Amino acid sequence: MQDQLLAGRYRLVRELAEGGMGEVWEAQDETLGRPVAVKLIFQLAGGGSRGNQERVRFLREARITAQLQHPNIVTVHDLGETGAGNDRVPFLVMEMVRGEGLDAVLSRGAAPLPDVARWGVQICEALDDAHRAGIMHRDIKPSNIFVTPSGVVKVLDFGIAKAADPIATRVTRTGFIMGSPAYMAPEQARGYPEPSSDLYALGCLLFELITGRPPFQAPDAMGYITAHATQQPPTPSSVSEDVPPDWDDLVLTLLDKDPAQRYSDAAALGRALRRLSSGPLGPFHIWTFAGRCLDVWYSSTEDGTRIVQHSCHGGPNQQFTLHPVGDGLYEIRTFAGKCLDVWGASAEDFTQIVQHRHHGGPNQQFTLHPVGQGLFEIGTFAGKRLDVHECRTDDHTPIVQYAGHGGINQLFRFVLVGSENLPE
C-alpha cells in the first residue's frame, strides 16, 4: 500500500503498526504539506448491507469522538473511506505523534514511579474531558498511550472499540473480542461498560507500569476475562518490593470488582496521582516544647502503638514524613509506613495519637498552622490540636488531641533529619 493516495490527499509513506482492527501508516497530507497518521480499519472492509451499516455506524461514532479537543488526546483531522464496492475500507486521519508507546516503555521493564504518576495524571485529564462529553475510551492499554519526547501524554483511539463493534465488548459473530481482555473491567466484559471501566483499565496499566507485569496472567482472552471477574489482584508491592503503600492503595482501589468502590471519576483519580507525584516532605524530627521529639513507643511497628515525646536520639522511630493529600491536609507517616491516627476516630479531648496502617480516613489527616518563629500547631479532623499531655516534660509523655488553647505544649517544630546536632 506504500505510496497509495487516499481521498486524493493522503499519501501513505510507511506502515507504523498493525493490530486487530487494521493498520496505522505515516502519511503525507499533500494539501497542507504536513505529516499525519492514517488508521485503516480493515476489520470493517467488505460489502453487503451489514458491512455498509457497520461502516456507516463507525463513521458516525468517529465523528463524535473527533469532536474531542484536548492536549492529551490525539486529534482526529479527517475520516472517510477508500476503495470501492466490497473493497471499501474506512480510515481515520490523525495528528502525527512522535515518541513511543507505553508498550515500548514496558519492554524495558517497570517505569520510575514519578514518571508513572505524571503519565497517569495526564491520562486522567484526557479521560475526564472525554467522560464529560459522554465518550468512553473502552480500550485503555499500553499501545494506546504515547509519550512524546517532552513528556506529554497522548491517548489514542478514543471510542474506536465501540465504533468498530455494535456490541462493543462482547464476542462478535466471528468470535473476536473487542477491547483488550488483559485490561478489561468485569462489567465491560459482560457488555455493560461505564466510565469507571476506563479507570479499571487504567488501574491495570498502572499496575503493569510500576511492577513490570499485568495484574493477571492468562493463556488466552477467556482466561483473562475469567481472572478479572473472579480473582483478586495481587498487591503491587508483593510483585515489586519497590512499590510503596500509597501505590498499593491507589491501584487496588482502581481494580475493585465493584465500579462504585473505585475512584468516583477520572478527576478524583488525577488528584490522587498528583499527590503521589509530588512525593512526601521530610523526613523530620518533630520537636516539642520540652526539647524532646515525637517518638513511636518502643520502635514498635504494630497498629495502635502510642506516639509519645522522648529525648531525641535520632532513631528511625523519631523520624516522620508529611504526605500532602490536598486541601491543606497532610498524612504524617512513621518509620513503619503507618500513619499518625486519632485513636478510634474519637472527637473527645485526651484521645491518644497512635500509629495505624494507612486507610485515608479523616482521623489520619492533619492541618499545619504556623504561629511564628518556625513553630506550628497541628490540627486534627475534630478541630482540636495535638497536645503534650498535661504539659509534662518527661520522657514517654503521650501525645493526645485537645481543644486548641495556644499553650506551649501545643507548639511543635519540624526539623529536617540531619540538619541539627543530636546527642551522641
TrEMBL record:
Protein name (database record): non-specific serine/threonine protein kinase
Domain Protein kinase: 10-288
PROSITE patterns: PROTEIN_KINASE_DOM, PROTEIN_KINASE_ST, RICIN_B_LECTIN
The keyword Transferase appears for this protein: yes
Record EC number: 2.7.11.1
Organism domain of life: Bacteria
InterPro entries in alphabetical order: Kinase-like_dom_sf, Prot_kinase_dom, Ricin_B-like_lectins, Ricin_B_lectin, Ser/Thr_kinase_AS
Gene source species: Streptomyces spirodelae
